[in-house]
Amino acid sequence: MNPQRQVFEYAVLQVVPRVERGERFNAAVVLYCRQLDYLAIRAELDVSRLRSLDPAADPEPIRQALEASAQACARAREAGRTARGQHFRWLTAPRSTVIQPGPVHTGLTADPVAEHERLMRLLVRPVGEVKGGPDGVR
Question: What angle do CA 70, 18, 27 make, to 5 degrees?
Fold first, then answer.
């Protein structure tokens, strides 16, 4: 028997190395499912993509910003269900920095961990690349 699927929300975090140019690439997926008590961010900074948009870009501050987002998710998981939703809204709020969230989308899932991995493969990783592993920034 299949477990009942629940509504989840997600947004892609994009790296915009030079805000004035508006060029961007996907680097992370934030996924939130209130009913299944899931909030996490998975991020993979592709330095070659970064350098193709800005050869002088320093990847370390961007990596640190993505890691800070992952840590915010971890704190929200410890704080409880209400905090998870608030943190998801904070992480997906528009801002004008090097890391910018895309629009929030919804879907249905019985397994948010597997769904998160599927979205990483579909939206962040180069076509044909396969990676796995726990939450965090690579």
Answer: 30
Which own/partner contact pairs does 85-92 have at CB distance under 8 Å and 24+ positions apart?
85/32, 85/34, 87/39, 88/9, 88/30, 88/32, 88/39, 91/11, 91/13, 91/30, 91/41, 92/11, 92/30
Any idea where the domains of the chain sit in the sequence? 6-127
* Per-residue model confidence as pLDDT tens digits over 86-112: 889 989 998 878 999 999 999 999 999
Neighbouring C-alpha atoms within 13 Å toward the C-beta of 79:
13
pTM: 0.86
**Residue 123 parent element (H or E):** helix 112-123
DSSP string, 57-90: --HHHHHHHHHHHHHHHHHHHHH-HHHHHHHHHH
